Amino acid sequence: MTTSTRPRAQALLGALVLASGLLAVQPAALAADPAYTDPSVIKSDPITLETGHIDAFNPVATGDGQIQLALKEDVTGSGVLRTPESVTLKVKESAHTAIPDGYPGAPGGYLLPLTQNPDLIWPGWDTMHAGAAVGVTDLNAGRADITISDVQGPGDVYIFSQSGFGALKSLLTDGGYQLPGTIHQDGLAHVHTNWVFTEPGRYSLTVSSTVWNAEEPTRTATSQTATYTFEVGTFAKVAVTGAPEGHAHSGSPIELTAAGENLPEGAAYRWEVKRADQSDFEAVEGQSGSSYTLTAEQALNAAQVRVSVLSGDEAVATSEPVTLEVDDHGAAPLQKVDVSGLKDHYHPGDDVSLSASVSPASVVDTWAWYVTNPGESEVQVEGADSSSVTLEAGTAVNDGATVRAALVKDDGTVYVASDPVTVAVEDHEEPAATVAIHDAPDGAVQAGETVTLSAAGENLPEGATYRWEVKRAGQSDFEAVEGQSGASYALIAGQGLDGAQVRVSVLSGDELVATSEPVTLEVEGAEPDEPEAPAESELTDATRGGVTAPASAEQGSTITLDVGAAYAGQAVTVWLHSDPVLLAESTTVNAAGAVSVTIPADTEVAGHKISVQDADGGALIGWAPLEVTAADEEPSPDPSDVPTTDPSGEPSDAPSPTPSGEPSDAPSPTPSGSATKDGAKQDQKKDGLADTGAGTEAALAAAALLALSGAATALAARSRRRRG
């Protein structure tokens, strides 16, 4: 921006003082112009004026009681009339100067002085050609108000004059100097004054004028409201080019370009549209370049488009809007709306969910939905302003109701609408979900045979799961089989399932929707009187597996065997080998496919085998190796293994007494609960020890060794006493 020195400010003050008598050009008695102005002579082609005499506010009489606010200029001719909107008044950068303290606009601004500077525009106002509209023949009898009601721009605008030796004089009715304000004239006159603009940029002044006859006060005339544009100094500015000169047809492209001056480096653009149905401009998303192509459609007829230049987030310049004209000569809009998602029928309480789409795309993006129920008027669905809607069958829409979707303009008028779709609501019950078990055996099956059951249903919910349930003979309730949620269930028949009932339920989430009738299983094969252990010859590498056991277990500990979920609910028998010891008879496999057994406390510390067989028929399920280790706690000494002493203190070789105090030669009993291979309780076997692989000879040898050791100890003690 140009700066000025103090000497120039002093010269300005002198000029203002010397020019103080040149405010108005109005002879003492001058006949008013009696002629009317033909509005057609007022030019409207765009023009920019940078110098010369200009009467910016120039109302002219166009008829009795009618005036039009025009601009008069002597730049392109003499007394050329133009519409205010067609003229841009350019205030050059050279108009910037320092302004003395106490004057409007101090300390500096763009000054258009009261006296003409041939390098600048010289704007004023002239009301002398408006009197004819109100019958004024003497200018002194005329009265005029020029009202500047609004000022838009980057800075302030002042007008002022001086009286005497440079004293400020207000031209506004409020006594001030800053616009907006009203200029009043007692007598129609031609006036020039000082103008100051404090900042560079584009200013818009909204102006109207009123004249009346002081001798006939009822005779008055008021002009239209006009807009005046001043471009002050050097500043960023932008304009939109490329708008069609005539009208466009729907579907044709409209290519607009931003042309700017003095734009900051790296500037971005913001394109904005205001349709005829909108009150404000709206930014076009995704358009930040210097060009913008849009497709003509009827909703864009009379729409205004402008562009702003941005430096960061700050708008440094905004163009004047261009107005689009789209005319399809009476044809309907190209856009068509379709509604989708309608089902064949609904039931009361169902959601009727519909979606709308438009093709080709439209600048109108607000939706409305309308419902017409039989016998009722169409109503708009409240709150439904998107491209989808959900209505409740039997409440919002009844059987035979029609629904349509529409794009609506901001003023609420329908732009384009779909054809109505008809909703069918049938008040009948949905068929119930059912399920049945197929592939159940026609008759009895053999124990050990695999039975596969299948569930087949109708009207089942999508994503349904299954729950298989078994009630064995003698049980009061069905029990769910864990891990079985598919449509089929394979199980191994056993005597424990003879007479068992199996059924299947269908679940939707946690909700039970259907349960089958149960089927009853019949398993052939008599229940054995006593379990019979698998022969050692059956426990081969070929039959190893089918059972998972821990690698080792302590004497007297309880272990868990994994038989497999397929045997859940089945009865099994468990043996410890080599000489078989029955660990569990007809025990039921739990839902996880496991059974628990206890290793006898007197089991030999050695390697063993553990086998599992179907209790219903004795079929071998499988076997696994098991290492039995010694228990953690030391066992109490067996009194029979410790030499006794007589009352004299001498060791005795007599057998240990029985609990009654009498010696006994009877072998020790077996642990309670052990069984022989034929299932009978073992009262006495191999000197009272359960035999799981240890030889009888080894046991006898150990006993003899213990006796010899005791005898030797006693003899040594006697020898020591004799020597003592």
Descriptive report:
There is one protein chain. This protein is mainly beta and 724 residues long. Residues 1-11, 13-28 and 639-724 have low confidence and may be disordered. β21 (268-274) and β22 form a beta hairpin. The chain has 2 helices and 53 strands. The strands form 13 sheets. Strands 2, 6, 10, 13, 16, 17 and 18 form a 7-stranded mixed beta sheet that branches. Strands 1-14-9-3-4-5 form a 6-stranded mixed beta sheet, with no helix packed on it. Helix content is 6%, strand content 40%.
* Poorly predicted tracts of residues: 1-11, 13-28, 639-724
Structural class, please?
A: mainly beta
Count of separate DSSP helical elements: 2
Q: Whole-Å distance between the termini? A: 136 Å
Largest sheet: 7 strands, mixed
Number of strands: 53
Beta-strand percent range: 35-45%
Percent range of helical residues: under 10%
Gyration radius, rounded: 57 Å
Anisotropy-based shape: elongated
Mean pLDDT: 85
Short description:
The chain has 724 residues and is mainly beta. Helices cover 6% and strands 40% of the residues. The protein is built from two helices and 53 strands.
Keywords:
disordered C terminus, single chain, 2 helices, disordered N terminus, elongated, 7-stranded mixed sheet, peptidoglycan-anchor, 724 residues, mainly beta, 6-stranded mixed sheet
